[in-house]
Amino acid sequence: MERWAKTVLRRFVLIVKSAVALPGVWLYLAAVLIGGCGGDNFAKIRNLHSAGEAIICFGDSLTEGVGAAGGQDYPSRLSRLLVASVINAGRRGDTTAQALERLPAEVLARNPRLVIVFLGGNDFLRRVPREQTRKNLEEIVTRIQAAGAMVAITGMRLGLFTDELGPVFEETAEKFGALYIPGVMKGILTDSSLKSDAIHPNGAGYRLIAERVAKKITPLLQAADRQRGVLPAG
Q1: What are the distances in angstroms from CA 91 to CA 57, 88, 163, 218?
Q2: Cα–Cα distance measured from residue 186 to residue 190, given in angstroms and rounded to the nearest whole number
Q3: What predicted TM-score, i.e. pTM, was given to this entire model?
Q4: 194, CA 20 to 30 Å: which among 64, 104, 123, 234?
Q5: Sequence-ordered list of residues with C-beta below 8 angstroms from that of 78, at least 6 positions apart, any chain
Q6: pLDDT tens-place string over residues 110-161
Q7: How do beta strands 86-90 and 112-118 pair?
Q8: According to the model, what pLDDT value does residue 164 have?
């Protein structure tokens, strides 16, 4: 059996075994099957051929997992969905400026392959000027890509009547060839069964975030695997 076939079979068996205990894995499994049949075009994603190894979730308290029990943060749940190691590089309270300061040690030094950037909430709460947030986010993306890794940017609506930073997330992804993951927080903070307080999800809310992220990055990782020769082309 060829190398790629063995890899696909082994990954499929692990996912199916996990799905028995973790119902959310079925969403990931569906994404695997759909992604393998075509789907998104990732030609514009920079560093699709990345030689890095680590999948890193980089963000603030929403990445750290404030409001949930241990192991229920979204990176941990994402790891179980992907059946792969995922590093949680979230730190509560971080603005984009503070995250930029710790980027070298906590992300770039870890041989990243894909970095999922989930920032902006604290910029909004602290009234950081939008263009400063944009500048910081662009610098974060630029540095990650210069290190040879792919970038995914999560989008979320911030503001009761206006969407203060939504366009910044989407425009930055488009400008720099990053994957855009829209609406990761949609419906969570308006549903008491999905949140722990006014601004943080609970375990169920983080599970929903992980499922939304997995649905988008699964076909990206498949396309990247094809670049490496792990999966067959087409």
Answers
A1: 11, 9, 24, 25
A2: 9
A3: 0.83
A4: 123
A5: 57, 86, 210, 213, 214
A6: 999 999 999 999 999 999 999 999 999 999 999 999 999 999 999 998 865 4
A7: unpaired
A8: 77
